[in-house]
Amino acid sequence: MCGHVDAMFAAIRRMTTTASPSVVIRIPRRMQERIENIKQVQSKRTNKLPTVKAGRMLIKSKNPQLNQSVGYTLGKFEQPVLASKGWKSKEALGDYFTINSTQSAPPFTVTHEGEDNDSAGHKTFECFHICPELVETLQSVNIIHPTTVQMQTIPKILKRQNILCAAETGSGKTLAYLLPIIHKLQAEKRLEGFTDTERRIQAVVMVPSRELAEQVTSVALSIGQRFGLVVKVVGGGRGVGNIKATFSHSQPDVLVATPGALLKALWKRFVSLSELNFLVIDEADTMFDASFAGMLEKILSHTQVASRLSETVGFTRKAQLIVVGATFPGGVGEILSKVTDLGSMVVVKSQMLHYLMPHVKQSFLRLKGADKILELNQALKKAEQEHKGALVFCNSASTVNWLGYTLEEMGVRHMRLQGEMPAAMREESHTDYIHRAGRVGRAGGSSGGEVLSFVTHRWDVELVQTIETAARRRTSLPGMESEIKKPSHKTDLTIE
Description:
The protein is α/β, with parallel strands linked by helices. Among the domains are: 2-47, no CATH class; 117-351, 3-Layer(aba) Sandwich (Rossmann fold), CATH 3.40.50. The protein has helices at 2-17, 29-47, 117-121, 132-140, 148-158, 173-192, 210-224, 240-246, 259-267, 284-287, 290-300, 331-336, 372-385, 397-409, 423-436, 458-473, and strands at 57-61, 68-69, 96-99, 162-166, 203-206, 231-234, 254-257, 278-281, 320-325, 345-349, 361-366, 450-455, 494-495. α6 (173-192) crosses α7 and α9 (259-267) packs parallel to α11. The termini are far apart. The model is unreliable at 108-120, 430-439 and 489-496 (pLDDT under 50).
């Protein structure tokens, strides 16, 4: 065989040295078939995605070739192959993919320089040197270790600094501002010893909805009642008479309010914010958008907000400003610059801000709108069998009502909550909502939560593809504002 091959190559060399203008080289059929086989094998190896390795799956798709394992990391210039790539086409109906959870709990505590994760994870609320009663109250409801946001925020509020806290939903922001505020208020209450008739509002927390106001109030009451602090709430959907009754006997130490209700109370002079020590604007994502910005600006005109650290102490001190949110609309800097120096605001920014939470399983299903009810019914049946609650979000009040009637016909027990309900009816629903809303992914919440999204419109596909790309690359979602855009004449913000 070897001699035959040598003879063939010798013949080829002789042919190439002749004066013939064209050379024809014939390859034996068996060799040609072998070459073709090699090409096919190489082609299959090239087309096979290298994202699947042994072990747990990060992305699990209907098409196994589009799976991606937890152990695989995309290269910087490597383009991810998306399971949702063709979802704008009708042929994609019935397709699905899941972003699996990669850990059992949310990112927990901050790691300080020189410490390892274990030592940071064992920090307790005693490290803030707040009053022991507060620590005991938290321990009684099994809140032992502070979250990352709390580790970063609480010391700065205790130092009386103006704060901009940018952190993901469920990361413990409410306790991050309530704990240091209540600690400060109880210490001053012991020193000054005001009676009920002399009590004045020392802290205001503004939130965009009545339900959220009730939620924040319940947390403030649970940790403030032990010190005799009075916490009251005024929310939307109530008449002036009800608002007046809230303040008929005495002023609270802490007031939780929606902008509309608080503005009514200020116009009728039921309250005064002239001696305010703390002003919290929670859910800045909503509070500074067009629907609330005008009311918020009027409320801020009734307060004296500190522009520097020295103004937050002493007998003539001004209010310490705390702004909390996950994203910040463009008007935030414009409004705040009218009442304070933006340069005085210390920014606390979560490292996981706008990242997909690694402890929450997320599934996406491409289907026709007419099939949503059947798929939802299946999902609810599964949740019932596993003794889990379910929270269903709709895009309008009318859809909430329609879905409620449909679930009734299907024999599914449920409770409705939507903004167009009368306040009294919403109040009957809010207790259940408070206990269940946001359980998925919240710090301290039960594990095993899942999110199921129905993708029915072509215009939603691009958003799904953005989410899938962020998951595969393990990057944050793009286009999310987490810093205040300052007016040109103001000082830069401090980033820590």
